[in-house]
Amino acid sequence: MFKAYLKKLLQNENGAILPIFGVLVVILVVVAGAAIDVSRAVNAREKLSYAIDAAALSVATDLSTSVLTNEQITDRITASFQANLTGAEFLDTAIDNLNFVVDSNEGTVTVASSASLSNYFLNIGGLGVAAFGPETFAFGTSAQVSYSRFDVELSLVVDVTGSMSDEIDDLKDAAEAVVDILIPETTTNSKVKISIVPYSVGVNLGVYANTATAGLSDRCATERDGAEKYTDASYSDQPVGDGSGTYRSRECSDSEILPLTDNRTALLNSISALDTDGYTAGQTGIAWGWYTLSPNWADLWPVGSEPELYTNDEVLKFSLIMTDGAFNTYYDLETLTKNQCQNHSYYDDTCYNGTNDYWIEYPSSGLSGESSQRAIQLCTQMKATDIELFTVYFGTNGSSNGAQVMQACADTGNYYQASSSSDLIQAFSNIAKKIQQIYLSQ
Q1: Is 120 left (phi over 0), alpha (psi -120 to 50) or beta?
Q2: 90: which of 12, 21, 115, 369 fits an S-S bond (Cβ 3.0–4.6 Å)?
Q3: In the prediction, which pLDDT does 239 show?
Q4: Among candidates 325, 316, 410, which has minimal Cα distance to 65?
């Protein structure tokens, strides 16, 4: 219709200039308007592309740290769209057309959407649309982002011996920082689980003691004996008679072990309850830090706290081990008569029936001392199972016994020395961030 009208107008020579001018004005307006409409569509697509990129990155970060349902993913992408497309006339359409695909095998999330804008200028007088273009411009885009497929298991092995009495609040702050970084307050269904393993002369196993020691203790554990003493062989692999069980320590701290959990409240409560007492049998703490990560000990722990198999390629295992001094105490299982027990400095009523297999506490000093060497052997065995070790020595003497043990235990680049309270908190925070970087980047 418009073309026929234009042809007739051009053939009419009466007053030809004015009609031609009028037609040209309309054409110029339509062309200019088309440029504006196209520009609006391009800008809108850029806004949508930015919003999709932001939503995909946000969801990928969440998927790296939490297990999310499709409904939760939709809600989070929608919230991101609403935040980044506030005031956009196509917001509702973009949300209606939203779709995503999570590929758990490849560890990717793809987010896509589309929308359209009405062409205000091309539609002048109803002529522009028919002559030059559509009523709307449609546009769409997508983004694909990788996320971490890995779960994390971390044992936090902390020194609560008597020498930590003045610094226990600093240790609590440092441990809380680890929880805050790896399991933020907003996290639900975290992919990170942490165990808390406080140690002194022994480890307070609480409700797990009786089972772990086959009835030898209802509170504290010291060391294993026999062929498996430096491994994570199950607590039930050997009969108690050959020393595979553990025995109580008089100076076990009131601070109880907490097996793997993603429960922030439980973790923070456990940290808040840390208390100090006793000497430093650090090898025992290291061993129990390992047992909370070992699938060979899964039967000991409650549902939800069982460590994953070493063969599970989608689980990364770490241990953070800390001490403020020398490893100075160890235990050996010996057979003593009643008189020998009574004459020993470490005597209690377990010898009253005569000859017994009895755990004797001995002092130890130096890097070559029994306590330090047992700790290093345990660390070596842990690393052989692909558990990555981070260590912190809290003290000013970097060549001390405690510092050397921590250096020997750490994987390359994972040893930290903290000379002050602020250094301790910073060291724990840096380790948590490094663990976070490791699992987010793989």
Answers
A1: alpha
A2: 115
A3: 44
A4: 316
Contact 196, 258 (CB under 8 A): yes
Tens of pLDDT along 109-135? 899 999 888 776 555 545 544 555 567
* Tokens found for residue 435: 């663990």
**Rounded to the nearest 10 degrees, what angle do helices 401-409 and 370-384 cross at?**
20
- The most confident of 21-25, 28-32, 164-168, by mean pLDDT: 164-168
The pLDDT tens digits of the residues spanning 300-351 come to 999 999 999 999 998 999 999 999 999 999 988 777 777 776 666 555 555 5
Say how far apart CA 230 and CA 243 lie, in whole Å: 13
Model confidence pLDDT, tens digit, residues 252-303: 889 999 999 999 999 999 999 999 988 999 999 999 999 999 999 999 999 9
**Residue (of 283, 294, 306, 252) closest to 377 by Cα position:** 283
Domains and CATH numbers, the chain: 2-146 (no CATH), 151-333+362-440 (3.40.50.410)
CA atoms of 373 and 378, how far apart (whole Å): 9
**Measured distance CA(30)–CA(311) in Å, rounded:** 67
Residue showing tokens 């994987």: 411
Cα–Cα nearest to 236, from 258, 211, 216, 257:
211
